[in-house]
């Protein structure tokens, strides 16, 4: 082979010479798990020739990028199956999403569960035909000819030059660069049996999908996510490299459904969402109120110990406050509409005194700034840490409201810390450690951090100030030793933030606490303190929410614990179950001792039989069940029954009371 016939590649970090025109499929021929190639940082189909000097990496089917390619390819097979069973179906878009994919269709009738089963059978037939995914670069005219019967695809072609702003999923179909169509090619005839407008890349063939896929549900969806557009039908699915991986995913989903806080909230009588109140406005029942109070009381005490001072602010304010803060410029779409009040009219209807717009507050920070500004401040008072369980209201769209985790009325455990520039780094470090420690106390201990930086289209202040704030936050985050993930453009308009991402018992990630560094609102509110040298200086402002909102945090904890809250949070910590009615008084005496020690305890004296009472306590997820019969009463003892069904018999009453008190006080069970 002459040098003219060779090119040099960097393959997985090593220099390699190959024949000109070598494809990714040929390069990774012996690696059956490689399904796409990363070429100079971009994912490419394996059938594409590799360019001279390229940096090449094989992407396996079980890697994050490989999974995305698998799922997007499965979405194509699903769309092909839909059009085989419903020839009049018009194609929307079909991107991969977390753990799966979806595809939108314009069809005469919605899809039923029976339709999904029929589609799975048709998909398996297509998969077993081992069709090839073949990329074809076309002109716009050629694309329009190929998609002439697909009105939504033709619309996408018209959006090519601004695909990023055109709506959800548009970049999957068209975007910067060539227009491409993917053909599903029959192995035997070599003919294209189906095609779609798509940027790719895709698997080499359908056989790689195997039968480790499932269609999960269907729903209505607006074209490009815009409610002003045509309503389509969306089918969701999932795909995995192996049957075992699919089964594990399905088991996780089933467990997540069992842990759904909305379901558990009803079963355990914790909270509800009355239609009469409106979307996103929950109410807490007595048992839920106990949990919430325990959460808040513990948090209050920890804040007192950490030097925070408590403040209280109203639920509404004149609109001018949010003009000063910038929220009406940058956050108005997230606020409830104004209430125009206080106008006074003359007898003839003319305005004697104009009214004013009042808003439900979406944030507490502007009101806390007014508290800081209410009198002169000295450097000796700093850092000043103001804390409030403040009720705020945000106009979440009805489509995103979800149980307690996405509400319209919420209580933020909100703190704002005012400090000098010299103090800010230490204060940020202290605040982050405080946040992480308190989250661990509630049972969340698997974290990483996310650093949200400036949105170039939505910010106040100058670049130098933003750079200083971002650099300081990054240094504090890195010093924590936790993994730090960038979130470009995710900052609030007034400053960058660190957010604590916590994993629950199922490994799902939830955004918990946020810490924001803000040089801009002190400037807008003209906040000042007298420095040691007598000059007037601006404080630095740190925004900090620990739970995010009490409602959301309780929803997360409900799912994390599957409703089986640790004893210190459980609404009922102990249930006493007498073996027979004759032992009721004895059990009431035991429970009385527990109540005197501050334990939430009660006796089950219902007419149910003893086994039914035990099952009821288990269903209600009671941490400790105490049982007493004749031998227990004679010995001055009780028997423990725990959530896992195990028992500890003949425990003296004084020891039993102390065990429970210690477990609650130390938050050990």
Keywords:
alpha+beta, Ubiquitin-like (UB roll), Threonyl-tRNA Synthetase, Chain A, domain 2, 4 domains, 8-stranded mixed beta sheet, 5-stranded mixed beta sheet, 32% helix, 27% strand
Task: Give an account of the 3D structure.
With 669 residues, this protein is α+β, with helices and mostly antiparallel strands. Helix content is 32%, strand content 27%. It has 20 helices and 35 strands. The strands form nine sheets. An eight-stranded mixed sheet has the order 16-22-23-30-27-26-24-25, with helices on both faces. β12 and β13 form a beta hairpin. α2 crosses α3. The chain is globular.
In short:
The chain has 669 residues and is an alpha+beta fold. The chain has 20 helices and 35 strands.
Secondary-structure blueprint of this entry?
Elements: E1 6-11, E2 14-19, H1 24-27, E3 34-39, E4 42-44, E5 55-60, H2 64-85, E6 90-91, E7 96-97, E8 100-106, H3 113-128, E9 132-138, H4 140-146, H5 151-158, H6 170-173, E10 179-185, E11 192-197, E12 213-222, E13 231-239, H7 243-258, H8 261-267, E14 271-272, E15 283-284, H9 286-305, E16 309-310, E17 316-318, H10 319-325, H11 327-330, E18 339-341, E19 344-345, E20 351-353, E21 356-360, H12 365-373, E22 384-393, E23 409-419, H13 424-441, E24 447-452, H14 463-479, E25 484-487, E26 497-503, E27 509-518, H15 520-524, E28 529-530, E29 536-537, E30 540-545, H16 550-560, E31 574-578, H17 584-596, E32 601-603, H18 610-619, E33 624-628, H19 630-635, E34 637-642, E35 647-652, H20 653-665
């Amino acid at each position: 082979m002459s040098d003219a016939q060779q090119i040099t590649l960097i393959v997985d970090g090593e220099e390699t010479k190959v024949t000109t025109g070598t494809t990714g499929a040929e390069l990774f021929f012996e690696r059956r798990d490689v399904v796409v190639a990363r070429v100079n940082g971009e994912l490419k189909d394996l059938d594409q020739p590799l360019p001279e000097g390229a940096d090449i990496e094989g992407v396996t089917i079980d890697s994050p990028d490989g999974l995305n390619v698998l799922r997007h390819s499965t979405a194509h097979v699903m769309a092909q199956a839909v059009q085989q069973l419903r020839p009049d179906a018009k194609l929307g878009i079909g991107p991969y999403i977390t753990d799966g994919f979806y595809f939108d269709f314009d069809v005469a009738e919605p899809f039923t569960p029976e339709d999904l089963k029929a589609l799975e059978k048709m998909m398996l037939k297509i998969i077993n035909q081992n069709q090839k995914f073949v990329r074809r670069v076309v002109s716009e005219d050629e694309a329009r000819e190929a998609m002439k019967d697909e009105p939504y695809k033709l619309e996408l072609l018209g959006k090519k030059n601004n695909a990023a702003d055109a709506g959800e999923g548009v970049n999957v179909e068209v975007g910067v660069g060539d227009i491409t169509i993917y053909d599903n090619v029959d192995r035997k005839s070599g003919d294209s049996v189906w095609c779609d407008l798509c940027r790719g890349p895709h698997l080499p063939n359908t056989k790689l999908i195997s039968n480790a896929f499932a269609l999960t549900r269907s729903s209505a969806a607006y074209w490009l996510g815009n409610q002003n557009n045509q309503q389509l039908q969306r089918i969701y699915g999932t795909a995995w490299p192996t049957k075992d991986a699919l089964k594990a995913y399905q088991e996780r989903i089933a467990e997540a459904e069992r842990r759904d806080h909305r379901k558990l909230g009803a079963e355990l009588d914790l909270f509800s969402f009355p239609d009469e109140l409106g979307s996103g406005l929950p109410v807490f029942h007595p048992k839920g109120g106990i949990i919430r109070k325990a959460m808040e009381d513990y948090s209050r005490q920890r804040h007192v110990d950490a030097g925070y001072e408590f403040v209280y602010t109203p639920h509404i304010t004149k609109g001018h406050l949010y003009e000063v803060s910038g929220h009406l410029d940058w956050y108005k779409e997230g606020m409830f509409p104004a209430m125009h009040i206080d106008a006074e009219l003359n007898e003839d209807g003319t305005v004697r005194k104009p009214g004013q717009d009042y808003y439900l507050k979406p944030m507490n920070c502007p009101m806390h700034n007014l508290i800081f500004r209410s009198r002169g401040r000295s450097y000796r008072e700093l850092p000043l840490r103001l804390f409030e369980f403040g009720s705020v209201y945000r106009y979440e769209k009805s489509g995103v409201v979800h149980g307690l985790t996405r509400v319209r009325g919420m209580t933020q455990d909100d703190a704002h810390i005012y400090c000098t520039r010299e103090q800010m780094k230490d204060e940020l470090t202290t605040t982050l450690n405080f946040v992480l420690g308190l989250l661990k106390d509630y049972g969340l201990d698997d974290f990483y951090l996310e650093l949200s930086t400036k949105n170039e289209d939505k910010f106040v202040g100058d670049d130098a100030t933003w750079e200083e704030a971002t650099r300081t936050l990054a240094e504090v985050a890195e010093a924590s030793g936790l993994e730090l993930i960038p979130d470009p453009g995710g900052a609030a308009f007034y400053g960058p933030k660190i957010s604590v991402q916590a994993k629950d018992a199922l490994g799902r990630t939830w955004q918990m606490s946020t810490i924001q560094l803000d040089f801009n609102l002190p400037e807008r509110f003209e906040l000042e303190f007298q420095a040691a040298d007598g000059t007037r200086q601006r404080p630095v402002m740190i925004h900090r929410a620990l739970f995010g909102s009490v409602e959301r945090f309780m929803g997360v904890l409900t799912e994390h614990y599957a409703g089986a809250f640790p004893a210190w949070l459980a609404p009922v910590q102990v249930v006493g179950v007498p073996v027979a009615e004759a032992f009721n008084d004895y059990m009431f005496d035991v429970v009385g001792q527990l109540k005197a020690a501050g334990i939430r305890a009660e006796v089950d004296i219902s007419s149910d039989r003893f086994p039914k009472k035990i099952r009821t306590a288990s269903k209600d997820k009671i941490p400790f069940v105490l049982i007493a019969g004749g031998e227990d009463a004679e010995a001055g003892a009780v028997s423990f029954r725990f959530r896992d069904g195990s028992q500890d018999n003949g425990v003296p009453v004084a020891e039993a009371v102390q065990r429970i008190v210690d477990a609650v006080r130390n938050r050990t069970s």
